[in-house]
Design brief:
Number of strands: 8
Keywords: Cytoplasm, Gluconeogenesis, Glycolysis, Isomerase
Function: Involved in the gluconeogenesis. Catalyzes stereospecifically the conversion of dihydroxyacetone phosphate (DHAP) to D-glyceraldehyde-3-phosphate (G3P).
Number of domains: 1
Oligomer: single chain
Structural class: alpha/beta
CATH superfamily: Aldolase class I
Subcellular location: Cytoplasm
GO molecular function: triose-phosphate isomerase activity
Order of helices and strands: EHEHEHEHHEHHEHHEHEH
Subunit structure: Homodimer.
Length: 251
């Protein structure tokens, strides 16, 4: 069974003061589970240097929320994997539903970012998930299969040995509506099955996180499911008490 991973996604939030307080607040929880679970935070680019200075030699890894498909050049406003690597990042989110919805990212462009990150020894966290309309029309599995195809078919299943998958039903992100533990487990099992069709070894080892209104109240029951290996946490990752409790539930 993969080692549990709890990761915070701060989205467009934070000040220098709040970042310092948040990291100071969650460090004890992360240290308490360091022998049994991994903890990470993905921050807005502008805070990554502050995060790196605070978290070096601690139990918390860090990363970014996005990256460009280029390593350098005339691409104003973008951040490259080489820059992220220089600031000690381990993880980078790829294809979060908000990037897909508001910035036009596609399965193909996500695969391009994923591949470039791995070329620079960064771990992509590939976000996948269905909308409410897709779930209600019975197309959840079709959506998941389509979103994973560029990685499984074009890049190869072995790339998942150095990647993380985050299943985030779009209808549950920031809405307060979490999937039930049974609903989440069903999709996680399907994801693992898709990977196992290519490689049982890779399927057994890949971390598959659940994201979508994860909080202290539901973390323990989610983590008890056979195919849920942790969480990608949004709003609750900004609250010391909530995120600390989620971390401890994983440990």
């Amino acid at each position: 069974m993969p080692r549990p991973l709890v990761m915070g996604n701060w989205k467009l939030n934070g000040t220098k003061e709040s970042v310092e307080a948040l990291l100071s607040g969650i460090l004890p929880a992360a240290e308490s589970v360091k022998d049994s679970a991994d903890v990470a935070v993905c921050a807005p680019d502008i805070f990554i240097d502050q995060v790196a200075r605070k978290l070096t030699d601690t139990a918390i890894a860090w990363g970014a929320e996005n990256n460009d498909v280029h390593t350098s050049g005339a691409f104003t406003g973008e951040t490259s994997p080489t820059m992220l690597k220089e600031f000690g990042c381990t993880y980078v989110l790829v294809g979060h539903s908000e990037r897909r919805q508001y910035h036009g990212e596609t399965d193909a462009s996500c695969a391009q970012k994923y591949a470039l990150l791995q070329e620079h020894d960064l771990i992509p966290v590939l976000c996948i998930g269905e909308t409410l309309e897709e779930r209600e029309s019975g197309r959840t599995n079709d959506v998941i299969r389509t979103q994973l195809t560029p990685v499984l078919e074009d890049l190869g299943v072995d790339t998942l040995k150095k990647a993380v998958i985050a299943y985030e039903p779009v209808w549950a992100i920031g809405t307060g509506k979490a999937a039930t533990k049974e609903m989440a487990q069903e999709v996680h099992a399907f994801i693992r099955q898709l990977i196992a069709e290519k490689s049982a070894e890779v399927a057994a080892g890949v971390q598959i996180l659940y994201g979508g209104s994860v909080k202290a109240a539901n973390a323990e029951e989610l983590f008890a499911q056979a195919d849920i290996d942790g969480a990608l946490v949004g709003g609750a990752a900004l609250i010391v008490e909530e995120f600390s409790a989620i971390i401890k539930a994983a440990g």
